[in-house]
Amino acid sequence: MESSSEQTGRPVEGGKPRKKPSLLLITVILGTIGLVAQLVWVNWKKPVPVAEPLPPEVASVIDRLPGTSDALIYASLKDIRESLFWKEVIPDSLRNMEWLRSEPALASVIEETGFDPASDLDTLVLAFQHQNSKKQKYVGVLRGSFKDKLTRQYLEKKSLATGSHGGETWYALPDSLWISRLRDREVVLANTPQLLQGYLEPEGNFLERDSTTAALIGKAAYKSHFWFTLSSTNWTLGALQSLTSGNKDMKSLGNINRIRHLALSLKFDDGVEGQTEWIYENRRSAYFASTFLWAAVKLSSASGTRTSEPVKELLKKLEVMQNLQSVIVRTDLPIGFFRPDSSAGSR
Length: 347
Hints:
Elements: H1 4-8, H2 23-43, H3 56-63, E1 71-76, H4 77-81, H5 84-88, H6 92-95, H7 104-113, H8 117-120, E2 121-130, E3 136-144, H9 152-158, E4 161-165, E5 168-173, E6 177-183, E7 186-190, H10 193-200, H11 206-209, H12 211-219, E8 226-230, H13 233-243, H14 248-254, E9 259-268, E10 271-280, H15 283-300, H16 309-316, E11 318-323, E12 326-334
Antiparallel strand pairs: 1-2, 1-8, 2-3, 3-7, 4-5, 5-6, 6-7, 8-9, 9-10, 10-12, 11-12
């Protein structure tokens, strides 16, 4: 027979009533767990693929650069031209694009000599330094097949003045262009005499002097075909604002105003592999930017959205992750992705 205390559901004498945990307590516990998990994730260094080493011949050129760099660009145009992607995917309009013609002095030299950067250049290293709010100083090292075009005879005839630095002759051309022919297949050019002299008579080691750019080069995953680094915050913001000028959501989601530096690299073979790393001012900014970007990519690529199918397929190929103060976005696009008659891009 049940006791009266059991029948009424009351506690036995001397016992205490059991209390159910309150909703507030559960919320606090779950919130604490979530906060700890977030802190661990933000401060956990994630594993990333090992970046390609910098080729010694490229490092030797970069080491001679004077000063520090706001932006540094490397392109192995010969290797890119030999890739299957270039031969089968790149349209003729891009293959025959008129490169290096933004400067009047360079455009004049190209037109007068028949030098075609798109086909004659093998490699290009181009470094920019801040000069003023409207203009950048630059020095470039060009290697390729132009011994019969950029001849010393042409440079002497066109030059306003000549001189020598480091045992190499330089030529001052109209419109602020200084050029030196180092070898039959190598030319150095700059838009200030100081930068040209700094390369011909190098002092110290650029990769030791400019630690920010050196670190960004290390973050470039693919160093054999094309990469660039933006060490200057102003350059980085300007580049990203230009890319996202027509997309306000991307501006806000990417939190681009807090990005300080950027590295991007591409590898062309039987497709395109690419990676870009955005370095933020702190880990918290990088975490929130990566979270919003990841969510935006997943939502935009989901079925039922207004996003066009080609863009959806591209978004599905993007990987977004946060690694300490960085947001890393990478992709691997097979050549079939760019062929409209192939279903490879949709798999």
